[in-house]
Amino acid sequence: MIANITKGRKAVGALVYDFGPGRRDEHINPRIVAGNVTGTPLQVARAIDHTARRRPGITAPIWRTSLSLPDEDGILPDAQWSAIATAFIADMGFGGAPWVAVRHGDDHIHLTVSRVDWAGQLLTDRWDYRRAREAADRLEEEHGLVRAADRFRAEGPQVRNNELEASKRRRGPEPARPPEREELRRLVREVRDASRGLGRAAFESGLADVGVGVRANVASTGRMNGYSFTLEGWTDGSGEQVWVAASKVARELRWAQLKTVIGDAAATAEFVDRATEMLGQGRIERGAAQPGDHPALSSDPAARILAQWQAKTAGQEAPAEALPEPKPVSVPAWTDKRRPYGALATDAIPAEIKKANRQIATWRGEMEMAQSNARTWDGLATGSVTGTRVRDLHQLAAKVAAARPHIEAEVAARHDRVAADTAADAARKIWQEARHRKDLGWLELRKLGTSRKAEEKKAETSGEAIHAYVEQGRQAMTRAAEASRAAQEASGLPWAEREQTRLREGWPQLLADAQRGDQDEGRARRDAELARVEDLARRIQTAAARADRLAQEAELRRTMPADQAKAEGRARREAARSKPPTSRRRKAGPRSPGEQPAHLRRQPPAAGGQGRTR
Questions:
Q1: Confidence band for 217, pLDDT divided at 50, 70 and 90
Q2: Which of 72, 89, 405, 438 is the most buried (most CB within 10 A)?
Q3: What sections of 172-216 are H helices per DSSP?
């Protein structure tokens, strides 16, 4: 699976291309197979662009990639493509942003993603090529697809589209006639295998027999640099013959590799003729080989080469020459500073190497974890990942929103109570004034335009109103208390109304402070993880160097002369005996007969003092 990543400014153009005819009318039945945005293609594109515009300072907020498969994987159903697209987006960390996957062919899909998520946070695209390759590798293993790493191991230069089209024009479209480069590669390989060990003349003659033109590339100094090949009828647009260097046909046909396969028969034959002449003239001493030995094992170079050549031409296998015994190599003594572990026991070296390798494996795991943590904290530092402070602030806002109806009911109940108390106070004034007037004389009441009976009626009515308003205030207090308890239960906050007021009045500043705090924490933790990565890298390097030196010490002891090995062994044993263990405790020597322990011995009297008397 190959992921081809591009970035742009708007998703509308990308979706128009996906649902259009294509550059060569290759788009067939375009359709949406996955995504988290619904609607028509144009509506989906506008929704993605609307979210991306929340961060106007980003020049390329649209992240786009195509996931393509080779022919060996066949045609996958839409459901499997949907699962692949969803898992790929999740692995890339874009699951919280609007995205869509479009399929308009058999072997690939296009993913269009906004790098701005639903909350307006920018998602990082750092290391996206490497993360896409890792995600594609995991999906290949999960879905049993052909691994891309195994596909791109070409044996030689491949036939490109323009060369393939030109070959079809020259040789016809029949599948029995492959392109000239492919046919040339096959023929040259066959002749090379048939001419193995026979020299250049046999190789060039074989090429001529199969219709391959050959041209030796020889430098001005006479040095052979390789071959160029061609086929009959292979010409370019101007009618000139096309010659292809051997390295452009196949990598193993380069002269450095080819000469080791075909050999140089002419030079060998010339040397054999010369050796035969030298033998005939008696210029080389004979009888160097032991009686009964094969002539190819002779110490006489002319006789040896002649016998090897005769055996090869007769189809026989010449015996291999015995390798000379290696000379003992001088190894520096273990007391030398260049052997820091020379004093270590031979049996202890493998254990020390294993211990160092275990430390390296442990530190590498810790370093990978620290690198992963650094990437995570880097996302928080750059603002592409939401931190705990911002999440806590949003959670607090959600709690307050859940308690908002109860808060509004509590506020309304308190207003009703205040209104009832105000009405009750007004009724009390009326009642007090009526009680005062009803005790006046009829002449004063007449001057005031009222009567005793009217004032008594007013006092009675106002008294009843006072009781009604007091009851209304009590009921309002009860409703406010119940609403407060309901708000506390719905939000889990002791003072939900106070938190609502604080969030409503200072939300922009609170959000900015939370984001700044998360980013500061992300930078601090990222720097700490990077410092830990550097420290672990230094530890790994030191441990690896120690393991290498231990391995060198073991190899030196394995290859050193036996006498030196025995001498060093004796020196190490003597050095070990001369250093007593530090953990051994010193023991007191045995006491003489009749001697008391030290803690029971009587101390002598002080000078000038008198002893105790009974």
A1: confident
A2: 89
A3: 180-194, 200-209
For residue 525, which of 381, 369, 372 has the smallest C-alpha distance?
A: 381
- The pLDDT mean for the chain works out to 81
- Report the alpha-carbon distance of residue 286 to residue 275 in Å, rounded: 12
The amino acid sitting at 211 is: G
d(CA 427, CA 461) in angstroms, rounded, equals 9
Q: Is 276 exposed, middle or buried (0-12, 13-18, 19+ CB in 10 A)?
A: middle
What band does 2 get if pLDDT is binned at 50, 70 and 90?
confident
DSSP 20: S
Cβ distance 85 to 110 under 8 Å? no
Burial class for 199, CB neighbours closer than 10 Å (0-12, 13-18, 19+): middle
Residue 328 has pLDDT above 80, yes or no: no
Q: Which two tokens stand for residue 28?
A: 């067939």
Comparing 326 with 135, which gets the higher pLDDT?
A: 135
549 in Cβ contact with 369 (< 8 Å): no
Mean pLDDT of 182-209: 84
Q: For 157, which DSSP code?
A: P
DSSP 382: T
Q: Are 413 and 483 in contact (CB under 8 A)?
A: yes
For residue 472, how many other CB atoms are within 10 A of its CB?
A: 17
Q: Are 67 and 129 in contact (CB under 8 A)?
A: no
CB 315 within 8 Å of CB 326: no
Spatial separation of the C-alpha atoms in residues 404 and 400, rounded to whole Å: 6
Q: Do residues 553 and 339 touch, judged by C-beta distance below 8 A? A: yes
Residue 196 binned pLDDT confidence (cut-offs 50, 70, 90): confident
Please state the three-class secondary structure of 215-279 as a single string.
Answer: EEEECCCCCEEEEEEEECCCECCCCCECCEEHHHHCHHHCHHHHHHHHCCHHHHHHHHHHHHHHH
Amino acid at 485: R
Residue 544 and residue 209: Cα distance in Å, rounded?
58
Instruction: Report the alpha-carbon distance of residue 228 to residue 244 in Å, rounded.
Output: 5
Q: CA 306, 307, 310: angle at the middle one, nearest 5?
A: 85
- What crossing angle do the helices spanning 265-281 and 200-209 adopt, rounded to 10°? 140
Residue in 536, 546, 126, 545 with CA at minimum distance from that of residue 368 = 536
Is the pLDDT at 62 greater than 60? The verdict is: yes
The pLDDT of residue 39 is 84
The pLDDT of residue 113 is above 90: yes
More confident site: 212 or 300: 212
Between CA 585 and CA 576 the distance in angstroms is 18
